[in-house]
């Protein structure tokens, strides 16, 4: 098993079952993913063949009930999976997050029985891939301003508008698309071959390169009535999905930080300068200590959040705190690790530069750092400072 | 009860008994201490009359066994007491830390049965006061270099040397003094009226003003054999006391931060500028959010540390991490609070400047920030970078 | 002469006359001020007997013309005086700033010929002391909201309202008071014994202790017509005074930083731990390097600003940049120096804690850090974000 | 001309000639380089066809005398060229730095008359390309430890060893290689087709992608006597070249920061969220203000350094200060700009991610941040803390 910094012995509190799930995730990442990620990162491709394997391992929508083919595990075990996937690459965790938290979760929570039965087992198995269309080109931090709209048409709706920065847009079999109907936000399931629906891959990304990101556009795209999510009304439906995803990111960020921290630690113990390992210099130790201390905070936040989530005591502000803190922590950790590796920090022989680049996306998506600052600010003061 | 930021609902996990102890500490601080601290801070005096009250409440050496008149409580309850005392003032917590962790603890752990029976009940009751003499003028971060020494003389020893920055030195009935005997560190109990022992108060402090700090000097000071701590041999004995004290500081720092955070939060909600409360400005919210996020980390560290300590799984590096992080956090929080209060932040009508000044000591004593960096650095890398 | 960090050889560019003025200021501070400041800081008093000496040396209103008894020197020489006075203590520089930039400057710029002839020579000589009343209890960052007002009455005005945080309020012979007359801000000269005018000293400050700070109140206080500043109309008049004062603060902050930097450097070279000077540890060198690098930036800003001011090219945003940066720099430098001195950093045997405490005021007055952020933000973006 | 932040009106102090050179560099970058950089960055290639154009413009070895075909300009004009080239891309400035400061400079300063006459005009014209071989795989921060060595052989030397992270190694016509001869460092000119000399391009870089970086290896590579630099003896010869290069980097970093700052400023003024430009939010203004303030410091450092260098008053510690500060500033600026652009910050439609990635190399090469900290620390304290 890979080294996992555990200064406060949190992982020793895992149950046997959680330990096994954790180990399965570690094995998968180390054996199936690490050998190929560097090439995919260079080429800006995602190893789509891994999606069914993720499904087989129960890593897609893991918290949803077994009746729909899901693993039905608790939030701690789910968090550990996210941690390990992002120890591999943020792109890998993103794929699992999108599938589980942004596609399967809304179908399960807001969908009809028929929608659930049709989609959830296939999505859980990784036989089908989904994507989540909320963000628009001009509405990133303010989804309430969305322009995409649905108009009643025959036995369904005509969908018009566009969505931006959509993970897996080009490989998705189904898109969960949010649009305004009579001024109120609703969710629609849009299969990939629907006329009027096109997805265009975004090129030239230097972050999450091993992830497919797309722009979706809908041009008088007809959606039959039964493809609307019946229970989702208003913006709080897609926001509840974001909460699920952010929870996973809070765990995932720890994985990324563990990857870069352990790489820097190992490097510092073997890299000799002035006849001794650089780990013996005060300026290097200080950097390692800040990393390890910050990772420990992030772990405590994530473990406690899992507990609160399992007890249904979690609130959006708690998740904002953990997402905001842990991703910034992971980004700082990657930057520090990059610095410790000096010249070796810029080549893809080491995972560091890749993680550092990835985290620039992770700190932005699912609520930028500033958005989470203002969510928390409102929670603490009772006053909104968004506008 | 005073407001206590609890974003991750940690205080809701307290047992009824812990809740009661916590409340007793809050009441004591709010009713007995808050009304007088400002005057003591101005005058640079400590309210010695409170020491027996601390004793009566069981706040001195609270974790030690009841057979010696102590409260025998667990580490979480003890931590909560430290938190509340330092919410009052770092000087108040320091007095309790010195008495409990640095005087009673070594007597209990390293003392003879007779020493325990003689001193512990009186110290627990606050009828007697103790101090701890380890640091020397030229040996702050490197206690191993101490010059104070004991030489065999008749049925005891002659003690020579001096100790610096000793809390309560001038009011102590007994000093636990560490000195080298044949090159090995030993502990000695030195009653206040021992010939050759003098204590001089250090004046002109602008930190921990409400605390008495002294220089001790020993000039052919005769110590009878039975005043040596029989079980303490080598530097690890006083270092084990520091671990106890640092644990309490890690909790205490949270109390200080809660005091300055809540003051700044309340101020920001009522202070109007440009026709609205300053809490509604993004630049103010950002500062409050950083404070609240950092306090949450510190709370998680402290609660977990208590658990590990109760399970006897705690290691010095864990305590270093929490002391280092939590005190820096409290200092940053005080500085930010000072900034939010603007001009009002500099007057003692508010507790902020006092806490900010105090924490400059707290970040230095019981191991400076740098010392804890290097303790952790050594723990992580396996290499010492002290020298 | 005291050591002055000069990594970029800026002080070597001084003219002979500037050198002489600089030296006179250094001598004054070292010989007349340093020996007494510690006691004044402890007692919270200002050495008023030094004011005439400042006058004799030409340090009050130094840039104003010689015809009014002023020194008529350039902005660089004036800056060097401010630097040296604040190397002594921010309180000393504050007194000179208030007298020169906030009292003499508005009289010179906005006053009648008679006002100039009456007040400027006495103020320049330090025979009379002035104060500046702009800030009000509820209007710190937003002076436009002031409530103090003047109503026409006989051959003058009745002044009502109160002013807060007024340096030298209790020792001033004359107050320059800003009040609204028919909704427009005007300036009034209020002699100390004017009926209805009272000044109350603010107690319990733990910053700028060696400075007198007062609340002024005006209760139907009659001001004869000839005491109004005829040329000052609107808020831009008092704001122009603030620009003068902020310019001086930008230089003064360097002086404070030089005091704490040199103290920490000297300490680190003589303090031995682990058998070598702490200056030889990487963690200490890093702190010294940050201080020295930041001081160098501040010096370059100040020297360039002097040049631009002499060429009448200076703009408020430039001054905001230097005030904001240099005071934060000085505060950070003091905090770092405090840390390097460890326990010795908290006693007034060293100047460090005093400077650190002082700078909490300096970063707040004449525009808080946030206010200058928003002044600059507006300058850069063209959009105001104040409200 | 492109926008150039100039809060302290430094660029207004340029002479007409300096203005013209500056403009020529701006034109070249904007017209010849900006249209192609994005593609080269994607493909990890350098536009070698631009090298002769750089030569024609006088941008290669610009400060060296005209008798060798160089421009013979002053240090300020040279700095402005570096600024503009790095505003394009750090790779472009690196090519000019290597050619001018690391190849032409040592030939000019340490070479024979014949070496100068042969190489300088061709290198100045960009007809030939050079590289600089100092760093070795195991000796980055400590070049004194180099293993590459030369042994006398017939009328010359046999060179053995390897060099790492060599910019332009694969396209260079000549390498300036540093090796030990009898334990003392000497410089050798190694033409590209010398038997035993091979260059291997380093792949998988995610920083300075538009730059060719190589490993050089020398295997009994015969160097005729006349290819040794006669005047270079000891490590101070290559270190003097590094000083030249670092000076250019201090300027170049400003160019990179100007690129990312102006991009973020423009974006913030046009990007609408919550119905107003994001430039009107306090949290965004604060970020822009820090960037602009830091760029201003860097400009003042660079302009003053140019003056000191032209007056031959420059010292290595001054250059270390500017290199260390300005590159960290540029990196922070790029990171902040990335954040302001949110999702758009990760695509190469904008230059920001590219600059951010590049600067990870720039902060490492020619002395890491830590190395410059310790150079400055030694300068300030008189004690070395390198080992």
TrEMBL record, chains A, B, C, D:
Residues 15-127 form the Acyl-CoA dehydrogenase/oxidase N-terminal domain. Gene3D superfamilies: Acyl-CoA dehydrogenase/oxidase, N-terminal domain (1.10.540.10), Butyryl-CoA Dehydrogenase, subunit A, domain 2 (2.40.110.10), Butyryl-CoA Dehydrogenase, subunit A, domain 3 (1.20.140.10). Transmembrane segments: none annotated. Its cofactor is FAD. Residues 233-380 form the Acyl-CoA dehydrogenase/oxidase C-terminal domain. The keyword Oxidoreductase applies. It holds the Pfam family Acyl-CoA_dh_M. GO terms for molecular function: fatty-acyl-CoA binding; flavin adenine dinucleotide binding; glutaryl-CoA dehydrogenase activity. Keywords: FAD, Flavoprotein, Oxidoreductase, Transit peptide. Coiled coil: none annotated. The keyword Membrane does not apply. Residues 131-221 form the Acyl-CoA oxidase/dehydrogenase middle domain. InterPro entries: Acyl-CoA_Oxase/DH_mid-dom, Acyl-CoA_Oxase/DH_mid-dom_sf, AcylCo_DH-like_C, AcylCo_DH/oxidase_C, AcylCoA_DH/ox_N, AcylCoA_DH/ox_N_sf, AcylCoA_DH/oxidase_NM_dom_sf, Glutaryl-CoA_DH_mitochondrial. GO terms for biological process: fatty acid beta-oxidation using acyl-CoA dehydrogenase; fatty-acyl-CoA biosynthetic process. Belongs to the acyl-CoA dehydrogenase family. This is Acyl-CoA dehydrogenase.
């Amino acid at each position: 098993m890979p080294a996992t910094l555990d200064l406060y012995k949190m992982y020793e509190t895992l149950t046997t079952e959680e330990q096994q799930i954790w180990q399965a995730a570690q094995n998968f990442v180390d054996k199936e993913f690490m050998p190929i990620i560097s090439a995919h990162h260079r080429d800006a491709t995602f190893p789509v063949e891994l999606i069914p394997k993720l499904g087989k391992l129960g890593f897609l929508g893991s918290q949803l009930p077994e009746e729909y083919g899901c693993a039905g595990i608790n939030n701690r075990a789910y968090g550990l999976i996210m941690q390990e996937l992002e120890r591999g690459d943020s792109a890998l965790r993103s794929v699992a997050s999108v599938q589980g938290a942004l596609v399967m979760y809304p179908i399960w929570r807001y969908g009809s029985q028929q929608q659930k039965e049709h989609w959830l087992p296939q999505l859980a198995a990784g036989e089908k891939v989904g994507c989540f269309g909320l963000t628009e080109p001009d509405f990133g931090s303010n989804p309430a301003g969305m322009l995409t709209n649905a108009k009643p048409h025959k036995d369904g709706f005509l969908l018009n508008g566009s969505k931006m920065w959509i993970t897996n847009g080009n490989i998705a079999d189904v898109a969960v698309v949010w649009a305004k109907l009579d001024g109120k936000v609703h969710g629609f399931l849009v299969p990939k071959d629907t006329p009027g629906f096109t997805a265009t891959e975004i090129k030239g990304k230097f972050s999450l390169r091993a992830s497919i990101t797309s722009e979706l556009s809908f041009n008088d795209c007809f959606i039959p009535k039964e493809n609307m999510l019946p229970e989702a009304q208003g913006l709080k439906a897609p926001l509840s999905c974001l909460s699920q995803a952010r929870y996973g990111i809070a765990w995932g960020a720890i994985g990324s930080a563990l990857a870069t921290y352990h790489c820097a630690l190992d490097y510092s113990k073997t890299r000799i300068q002035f006849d001794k390992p650089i780990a013996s210099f005060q300026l290097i130790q200080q950097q390692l200590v800040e990393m390890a201390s910050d990772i420990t905070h992030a772990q405590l936040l994530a473990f406690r959040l899992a507990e609160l989530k399992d007890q249904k005591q979690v609130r959006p502000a708690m998740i904002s705190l953990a997402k905001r803190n842990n991703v910034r922590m992971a980004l700082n950790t990657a930057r520090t690790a990059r610095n410790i590796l000096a010249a070796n920090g810029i080549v893809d022989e080491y995972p560091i530069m890749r993680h550092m680049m990835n985290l620039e996306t992770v700190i932005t998506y699912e609520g930028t750092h500033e958005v989470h600052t203002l969510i928390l600010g409102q929670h603490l003061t009772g006053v909104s400072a968004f506008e």
